[in-house]
From TrEMBL:
<keyword id="KW-0732">Signal</keyword>
<dbReference type="InterPro" id="IPR001782">
    <property type="entry name" value="Flag_FlgI"/>
</dbReference>
<keyword id="KW-0282">Flagellum</keyword>
<comment type="similarity">
    <text>Belongs to the FlgI family.</text>
</comment>
<dbReference type="GO" id="GO:0005198">
    <property type="term" value="F:structural molecule activity"/>
</dbReference>
<protein>
    <recommendedName>
        <fullName>Flagellar P-ring protein</fullName>
    </recommendedName>
</protein>
<dbReference type="GO" id="GO:0030288">
    <property type="term" value="C:outer membrane-bounded periplasmic space"/>
</dbReference>
<keyword id="KW-0975">Bacterial flagellum</keyword>
<keyword id="KW-0966">Cell projection</keyword>
<dbReference type="Pfam" id="PF02119">
    <property type="entry name" value="FlgI"/>
</dbReference>
<comment type="function">
    <text>Assembles around the rod to form the L-ring and probably protects the motor/basal body from shearing forces during rotation.</text>
</comment>
<comment type="subunit">
    <text>The basal body constitutes a major portion of the flagellar organelle and consists of four rings (L,P,S, and M) mounted on a central rod.</text>
</comment>
<keyword id="KW-0969">Cilium</keyword>
<dbReference type="GO" id="GO:0009428">
    <property type="term" value="C:bacterial-type flagellum basal body, distal rod, P ring"/>
</dbReference>
<dbReference type="GO" id="GO:0071973">
    <property type="term" value="P:bacterial-type flagellum-dependent cell motility"/>
</dbReference>
<feature type="signal peptide">
    <location>
        <begin position="1"/>
        <end position="22"/>
    </location>
</feature>
Amino acid sequence: MIRIKVIFIVAFLLLSPCTSQAERIKDLASIQGVRNNQLIGYGLVVGLDGSGDQTTQTPFTVQSIINMLGQLGVNLPPGTNLQLRNVAAVMVTATLPAFARPGQMIDVTVSSMGNAKSLRGGTLLMTPLKGADNQVYAMAQGNILVGGAGAAAAGSSVQVNHLNAGRISGGATVERAVPSALGQAEYINLELNTTNFTNVKLIVNAINGFYPNAAAAIDGRSVQVRAPIDNNQRVMFISQIESLEITPARDAAKVIVNSRTGSVAMNQAVTLESSAIAHGNLSIIINNEPVISQPGPFAERGETVVAQRAQVEIRSDEGNLMLLSGGADLGEVVKALTAIGATTQDLLSILQALKAAGSLRAELEII
């Protein structure tokens, strides 16, 4: 008997035309130049309760402490052996939002880079945060909050969190603003989150419906829009553009399989063409038979309609049999395979075989 070793989580996002809803342009696209920027810095966390780096194994922590003390006017004798267990070397990361101005506060994430056991209760010392251009854009400092939950019982304890990383809410002060070209050109560009020529056409039509001849398509992901030169008027104009609604087109059929967790996700109903697959002790037969419907012999109106009726038969050597009628839907096939006992590798092999045979008419992505 086949044992199910992996639990498959099948997520279906059925985006059929009848269920499509209007969405704002701001949910489908962004303004070119309006973006976040990543910041990074190296610093020290002090005040730990004996859970810091073991300085004998992390020489960079000792070097950082000596350099910091030297900048503060404390000169240690050469050859001093520091045995500090309340200090940890950390990397500090943050995201600088668009249009951030000096004096604003942003959150930072602090992560241990040595062998510290925990950063709980520590204090991050003043750390400059730099961008990709090696310029300092913010200064971080503050008390670290390590989230999570812990429970202790007689003679045992359970810790449900990660102790070597934490956050400081509002822990960095912006010192430099990133230049923005939003108001320095005649045009602004809308960049779609995903490439879709149909959505580009719909956005162009929606904008030109309110502002004739203002928008033009550049490619499958960009729309150029003529905007006012004055900054105040341009902001109002962008606000109106972002609030326009369109009914997005259906994306291309796509199936994503996570080989590590066994999860399967598809962005819409994916059907299968006629095929027969034999894999190990499993066999899958998919039949699509035409069903003809025509009006009665004395009907004045009507037309002949030819539809497809699909049936899927799944068998295993143990005698397990499943019949799926009413449509060769990939989601139902995956659920049937897992019910019989297919493993992650079985599912991956079957999907790849269906794709190679032309039965699976969708993009297959394995991560």
